[in-house]
């Protein structure tokens, strides 16, 4: 009987993008991160502009609700949505970055960070409290819009 070589195929475009990002990072190391970050920021900006034009306002709560419709609620749960904070937790990385490196997660999260900076306000901060890329049991991310003093 012939033994079959079973290769891991992506189940969607995001997984395929994650495979490409991981391969690039594995081949070129930390020096690749600024290049990856710059390209992913452009992707986030494009997505942010697209959603900004479709929504009735650019409040963080409005954008976060629209953003929340793009992922599987079985894997990612909303902890908080308000006009000044959006927090989500997830058990699986859509890019497949589990047990890779925190710095890679931070780089890939530029997509979402730039999405929110573009669609809401450039003062949005992103705090990655936990990440499965670093071996944590979940990802815990907080987007926050600081009030002006």
Describe the structure.
By secondary structure, the chain is α+β, with helices and mostly antiparallel strands. It has five helices and four strands. It has a single domain (13-145), classed as Trafficking protein particle complex subunit 3 (Muramoyl-pentapeptide Carboxypeptidase, domain 2), CATH 3.30.1380.20. A four-stranded antiparallel sheet has the order 1-2-4-3, with helices on one face. The longest helix has 20 residues, at 33-52. The model has no long low-confidence stretch (mean pLDDT 93).
How do the helices and strands line up, and which of them pair or pack?
Layout: H1 13-28, H2 33-52, H3 60-68, E1 76-81, E2 85-90, H4 102-108, H5 110-119, E3 124-130, E4 139-145
Antiparallel strand pairs: 1-2, 2-4, 3-4
* Structural classification: alpha+beta
Largest sheet: 4 strands, antiparallel
Q: List segments where confidence is low: pLDDT < 50 over at least 5 consecutive residues.
A: none
The CATH architecture is 2-Layer Sandwich
Going by CATH, the homologous superfamily would be: Trafficking protein particle complex subunit 3
Query: In total, how many beta strands?
Result: 4
Rg of Cα set: 16 Å
Helix fraction?
40-55%
Q: How many domain regions?
A: 1
| Alpha carbon gap, first and last residue | 72 Å
Helix-strand topology string: HHHEEHHEE
The geometry reads as globular
CATH topology: Muramoyl-pentapeptide Carboxypeptidase, domain 2
Percent of residues in beta strands: 15-25%
Strand order of the largest sheet: 1-2-4-3
